[in-house]
Request: fold
Amino acid sequence: MTAEFDLIARIRAHAAAAPRRGDVVLGIGDDAALLQPPVDQQIVVAMDTLNVGVHFPDDTAPGDIGWKSLAVNLSDLAAMGADPAWCTLSLSLPGADAAWVDAFLDGFGALAAVHGVTLVGGDTTRGPLSVCVAAHGFVPPGQALRRDGARPGDGVWITGTVGEAAAALAQWRAGSGPVDAPLRARLDRPTPRVDVGLRLRGVASACIDVSDGVVADLGHLCSASAVGVELAIDALPWTELLRSRFDLDARRALQAGGGDDYELCFTAPAAASSDVAAIAEATGVQIVRVGTVVDARGQGDSVRAFDADGVAWHADVRGHEHFAIARSDRPG
Amino acid sequence: MTAEFDLIARIRAHAAAAPRRGDVVLGIGDDAALLQPPVDQQIVVAMDTLNVGVHFPDDTAPGDIGWKSLAVNLSDLAAMGADPAWCTLSLSLPGADAAWVDAFLDGFGALAAVHGVTLVGGDTTRGPLSVCVAAHGFVPPGQALRRDGARPGDGVWITGTVGEAAAALAQWRAGSGPVDAPLRARLDRPTPRVDVGLRLRGVASACIDVSDGVVADLGHLCSASAVGVELAIDALPWTELLRSRFDLDARRALQAGGGDDYELCFTAPAAASSDVAAIAEATGVQIVRVGTVVDARGQGDSVRAFDADGVAWHADVRGHEHFAIARSDRPG
Reply:
């Protein structure tokens, strides 16, 4: 089918112009990619799809879609402590728009270059706009960061700041004014915390990336580790812009339940706090302690949030509603 | 997001009920899968998406969609001579329909079980029905079947029969009568030729799977190998049902250009014909010689087809139109 082949040729040319890892025996252009795995490493594989209107607003620039589709997968690798290596891309498009594809590949390639990732294969098909990426990385045996190692007494830390991506979405949905550019940038071009993840090997007892929201994702970690977490809601790190735009209740809800942050949330023995500080120093990424691992409380909410005065904070936080990016309620 | 989590739990439970390969350190349930690659093997990765109305008719049963989404990827591994091992699945669904997902997983799992493939990860999202699968397999270094090794004088062989899937699609599009069940089965439940692919290591000089149509896919092989092919159009193997339903011209067009066959088309030195016969015997899969590799003819059609009398056969064969599965012209 001619259109598909032309797009593949375009992707192949784009990939050929980028540096290629030495362990890629055969990249785009055959029935499948042929790869030489490293000796004495395990392979970490993540795969996530982004659909228009679900995972990104329909006015998202193609370069941002390209960046984000790789970023969410590299974030999963970071949460495992994996060193990224290869990726494949399956791109469904309503039509064969060469300019759109070029812009998409520029965004995708920019992030791939940051982390030395080689695009080795995939396909293009006609369909509603949808991007599926599989990312592959390496980790020494026994050193992967998992969700199931948190123990009562461990501290809970989080990288960067949370709530900005959800804030951008809230502004976009409301449609009553412009979306603040720094917030929109957090939604469109998340930063996978690959370097922090690598340095957390041997330090973190459990780790997850924040895609569904801090409370929801910590809940997954608690479930896997059979523990609970007491979360200091007001310790969640914010930007001044976020504080200036939303009142306290709204900000807490965005930060605890917003999602799409792609920060790392991890646990570690309390004694590891100096190691954590050293990682923050070495990477230039803020890392803040936001809670403590406690015994599991049986069925029910495993994550309990408290404000700075120790008062329990309850909000209807059910995790980020990926299914609900629409602004049908917008005036325009 | 609750619906997504419920579906993931369903997929996880389904995967947990199937046998799990010993090299899967961590399957579904963490941020990514953790896998132990074999020593001294290369890794082959294929990734293909199926979209409703593009790669399968909208009345396709969910179990068939599950089967086919894995089959097209295993077919790519077969074309590389790879031994399948792991797969990931990204499933976009308009809604959270548990019965649909169960049926889908039954079809997917049935084929996975045939080849000992373990589902290790992926995601579920809301969106128009779309299935993306990445399949991983192994091959000893230097033994992968590629597209670029065909040499003038080599014979060209094809497994099974071709044209039935396209015939089913033609009947479905016409809508004037029932689609013959054996034809529809070829469209819905293709058989990846994994065992043949494994045995072609060291025998075939080049190999490709027939997804876009014999002429189009042989064209890709010719392009990669810088050769031409003379194709005996009437040597393409058919079923009696196909012959009984379509006249000679229509059948030739379906067989040479139809696509979705997922047979292997490969080249090998003429002296390898006894090896090929032995592979057919061992696997129970018919393998027929259908042409000869010749010198490249420069730009233009690299595949020339001739009938049994040596008369050139020309048809407007541009490869399978994956973009065009619709029956808007159907009466009903």
